[in-house]
Amino acid sequence: MIKGNCNVVKEIIYPEGAESDIRSVVVGDNTLSVLEIWGAEYQEQDALLIKPENEQLLRAVCDRERVSMAVIGSISGSGKITLVDSKAIAEAAANRLPAPNPAVDLDLEKVLGDMPRKRFEFTRQQPLCEPLELAAGVTVMDALRRVLHLPSVSSKRFLTTKVDRCVTGLVAQQQTVGPLQLSLSDVAVIAQSYTGLTGGACAIGEQPVKGLLNPKAMARLAVGEALTNLVWAKVSALEDVKASGNWMYAAKLGGEGACMYDAAVALRDAMIDLKIAIDGGKDSLSMAAQAGGELVKAPGDLVISVYAPCPDITKTVTPDLKLGDKGAILFIDLAKGKRRLGGSALAQVFDQISDDCPDLEDVGKAFSAVQCLLDKKLISAGHDISDGGIVVALLEMAFSGSCGLKVSLEASEKVQLKGRPLFEVLFAEELGLLLEVDQHKQEEVIAELAAAGVSCAVIGHVTASRVIDISVSGHECIRASMPELRDVWEETSFMLERLQRLDSCVEAEQLGMKGREVPSWKLSFMPTKTSDKFLSCTLKPKVAIIREEGSNGDREMSGVVHAAGFEPWDISMSDLLSNIVNLQDFRGVVFVGGFSYADVLDSGKGWAATIRFNESLLHQFQEFYKCSDTFSLGVCNGWVPGNVGSELEV
């Protein structure tokens, strides 16, 4: 719930109106005033409208899930929101005083109906733009090292190693890719079920620094980046793509409101051209703070999150190069030869913004063409060109594939930087796509793209030597060890990691990365599916999938148990404590993992205590473990009650 009861309740009852008792709202502090309860903003509640006859059903569900529920009012048909205070009414009656007026008695049409539009007046301010100036002694390698250290470009290991990236068991593509699990995934994919191949894909795009130069281009580039990330998962159609837009602007400050308006108009036009649409989002329009006489203002930003249905989640490619010496690298240029450095990582690491920034040129045809290649499984790896330019995109593909590259790029006639085209070619953040394909199929891929009206060029090939060799117009500008460059790319992440972990642990991991090799993936057994005679059996052994408040591994475990030939039953601890079910009906019990009791310290012990200190339930487990033909399993937080259960005195 955002903006409190005062906002959510009146919206959900519009236009009918309702009467609500403020004292029906569940609070943790009974001294809170009516105003505090009604206006408090918090996100731990939802408001629902239900039919009166369904109240008991909803209450039963809430009781089973240990969720607090309160009926706070009823639809009145008055067209008003009337808020009464039953406590104040009772106190007045006890003192033989007249009942107080309602705390709120508001005509909904006056606040939610056909309201007069507000008028805002903004002024535009022209940004101070200067061409990028690089000192005469700066080399490509100097610039590359700086760019690889930039947080927006460098490894995100410090984030991805501290989260569970596969909760639910339905995650088909998570944040990390390749044999070394580097945080370089462009797109997220999730399956709809444990047995089918359909699902959904989502991706994100944002370019805040570009907005300092051109808010319109920033909005269009955010869409372009999101789509060039999403393209690597096969979706039903470009027209099926929907988006969420999150706006962050200091809108009340001079020039910012106009920038946001320009960005919104540009976003609308770009989405109309692409035939995609926004269906939600949020905004934060106070992105400035004043302290010590200084005003700190965040750059205006628009984060576009796109999502679409996936007919086949297996038709997804990742950036990690996979073909070794047999791989060819293809480049799809979506900028028509332009190489603009405005708002780039290169400019940023030299404390500049530059002048002319990239823009969205043409992404629709390329999106559809690459989708066709995915459908035919002609691409083994793919990556978008974004922060850091094409050189960083190429390196990231090599880093995640733990291999080398030999690439030759050409400077077009549109590239001019005072006689230094190398930087424009390598670091311009123009939209583009990089593909790894089998060398024997590269002509087929080029022909497929050409038939769709998309031009591409073969710019190099993969090598197993783990050496990066990149030249521009015949001039070799980068020749270095891939592991050494990868270490540079990882350095910033490890520095941030030291702020949240022991130095000794970080140092050990950093040293391990330097010599880490691709795992051999040799299994000591041959995986086989469960025999059909067990899966088709009508009477299967029942297994209780036991979950506690906050557990989220139950559906995944049910899928595992079902695939093994058992009959999974969803059992909450409430079911056991209220004697709705009995363990004597089951041959197995599984205590699932995932954030029981919000994953607070010793939450597993708390779960175990609900068994140990309930005499009836304790007896059930004692009897269960006496049997020689039963089994139990505990995972994550569920290991504690599972382990304790196996040690119960019988």
UniProtKB/TrEMBL annotation:
One annotated Gene Ontology cellular component of this protein: cytoplasm
Top EC class of this enzyme: ligase
* EC number, as in UniProt: 6.3.5.3
Q: In which pathway does it act?
A: Purine metabolism; IMP biosynthesis via de novo pathway; 5-amino-1-(5-phospho-D-ribosyl)imidazole from N(2)-formyl-N(1)-(5-phospho-D-ribosyl)glycinamide: step 1/2
Query: Which UniProt keyword terms apply here?
Result: ATP-binding, Glutamine amidotransferase, Ligase, Magnesium, Metal-binding, Nucleotide-binding, Purine biosynthesis
- Residues forming the PurM-like C-terminal domain are 4-84, 340-469
Protein name stated in the entry: phosphoribosylformylglycinamidine synthase
Q: Which organism is it from?
A: Adiantum capillus-veneris (Maidenhair fern)
